[in-house]
Amino acid sequence: MPGPLFDFDVFLSFASVDAEASTAIWRTLSQGGLRVFWSTETLKGAVGQSFLGAIQDSLLKSQHFVLFWTAHAKRSAWVTAEHEAFYHQCYLKDRDSRRLIVLPDGLEPVSTLPPFLQSLQIARSDQEVVTLLGGIDPQRLLRENRELQAAVGNLEARLRKAQEELDLAKRLTVAGPSVRAESQRAATPVAEMAEGEAIRSVEEALGQIEVATGGGVGGAWVNETGAFQAWKVLYAQGGERVIQALSARLANPKRDWQDQWKALTLLTYASRTPEGRERAAEIITVAADLVLRGGYVKRAALDLIAGVPAPVRSKWEALFPLLQSAPIERIGELVRRLPEFTPSEERSRTAEVVAEILAFTTQADAITATVSALKALNARSQLPRLREVMAEAPIEKANSLADLAEYFGDREAAPTIRQAIETWRHGAKPIRSLLTSLQSLEGSACHAFLAEILLDSQPQRQQEILSGLAKSNDPALLDAVAHLGEVATDSEVRGLAKKYLTR
After folding, report:
1. Rounded to the nearest 5 degrees, what angle is found at the Cα of 80, between the Cα atoms of 79 and 85?
2. Could you tell me the pTM of the whole model?
3. pLDDT tens figures, 440-494
4. What is the pLDDT of residues 201-237, one digit of tens each?
5. What's the CA gap between 92 and 100, in Å, rounded?
6. Taking the CA of residue 227 as centre, how many other CA atoms within 13 Å lie in the half-sphere pointing to its CB?
7. Residue predicted with more confidence, 170 or 462
8. What is the mean pLDDT of the chain?
């Protein structure tokens, strides 16, 4: 987030014709906690000022710049003047603290950007811009607000209880020694409960919570209503001692997965209490030790860490070391979710380790998880390394890497994708992502190449190419498709070829 030298976090640049579409972007950025210079709204208060002067002044006083890239913006001299001014006067002079992000509308290709902007960060959504610039997810803010309200309610209840105990103590002082002694004898079981029976109470509560198992998407689930009721009773009886008992129980590796899952659910409720907030670091450490366990326990541990009201860095510091020490077959879910626990200043470090895992793994789940994480981390700095990996990757990984290259608009990956298509075109496994990514990155420039592949491939591959082939006026490609429509021995190939020609 910017320092006090900037009046705005973001300068939103857009063509005047796109003012209505830019409204949604402005609203998302603003709801994410970012101060946005948006000429349609911000300059309403600039009556009497020079419009040009107000724009120029606001460019200098905005830390970051977001360019809403559309066909209208491409032709707008005003938008061009804005992004060129920010790039030369602000971004080039201070790349460490100022960013220029392009937000395409999904219709105008990124390839139409001026060359000096194509190497900059490309965002896929306005919410991604909020994340990149350190804003706040509005849904997360609402969730944290509800949790804070619950914590305040708990605190108020504890204050009322403390006041009742204080009033009782005052009455006992007035009542005399015999009444005080009787009261102390009556209070003894409660004191012993707080001291010695917290673990036993946790045992009993876990035994009452049901874990249902069955088919379907979920497979298994904790009865959350029962779990929450059990927690309320535990908390009323033991308070902080219950949190200690739950942590101690989870530290025992001999517990079965259902027992751990139920204990994590209770600890999730505990983390939202005043005592839980004070013991946040301990709770995160306990949950991090379970992240590499079985599926349900792993997800529950990560969900617990996500909900703990603690700085994101503390969560990252507990989870990041696991990437470098754990077996690859156990880290899929961790890698997939690690971006949400990564501070902005550690994104490049996390991305480097994730890319290294992707380089060496051949496991499908790990490949999917690492590709997803690299997208979430906006890991453009890893693209050269990933091109090298793609050149020697098995077909499953090559398809995933091609998809990643397409996501980042990495046109330098096109020659490597061509090489992978040449390598795997005679195999039995699909190469659809390679084909669609090449077309996305090169457009019609790859159609002559695809014509050659089309004529010299087996029917299964010809079907795959024809099914995903973008419409083209390239003579070589049209001739190849027409030829297949006449002479192909496979009826499906002939049908697809004729259908393509009549689009």
Report:
1. 100
2. 0.57
3. 999 889 989 999 988 888 898 889 888 888 888 888 889 999 999 898 889 999 9
4. 666 666 666 655 554 434 555 656 667 777 777 777 7
5. 10
6. 20
7. 462
8. 80
Computed on alpha carbons and rounded to an integer, the radius of gyration of the chain in Å comes to 30
61: amino acid identity, one letter: K
Amino acid sitting at position 9:
D
Asked if residue 400 lies in contact with residue 361, where contact means CB atoms within 8 angstroms, the answer is no
Give the model's pLDDT for residue 392: 87
**Strand 211-213 and strand 220-222: pairing?**
antiparallel
Which tokens belong to 58? 């606001």
Give the 3-state secondary structure of 215-258.
Answer: CCCCCEEECHHHHHHHHHHHHHHHCHHHHHHHHHHHCCCCCCHH
CA distances from 55 to 52, 180, 255 (A): 5, 76, 63
Tokens of 146: 């509800």
* DSSP secondary structure string for all residues of 1-66: ---TT-SEEEEEE--GGGHHHHHHHHHHHHHTT--EE-HHHHGGG-TTS-HHHHHHHHHHTEEEEE
Query: By C-alpha distance, which of 73, 87, 92 is closest to 25?
Result: 73
For the chain, what is the largest distance between any 2 Cα atoms, rounded to a whole number of angstroms?
110
According to the model, what pLDDT value does residue 65 have?
Answer: 95
Q: What is the DSSP string of 158-212?
A: HHHHHHHHHHHHHHHHHH-HHHHHHHHHHHHHHHHHHHHSHHHHHHHHHHHS-EE
β-strand partners of 66: 12, 101
Nearest to 32 by CA among 147, 124, 129: 129
Asked whether the beta carbons of 474 and 448 are under 8 A apart, the reply is yes
Helix (H, G, I), strand (E, B) or coil at 102: strand
* Cβ within 8 Å of residue 26, ≥6 positions away: 12, 36, 38, 40, 41
Per residue in 132-157, pLDDT (tens digit) is: 888 876 555 555 555 666 566 666 66
Cα separation, 239 vs 191, in Å, equals 12
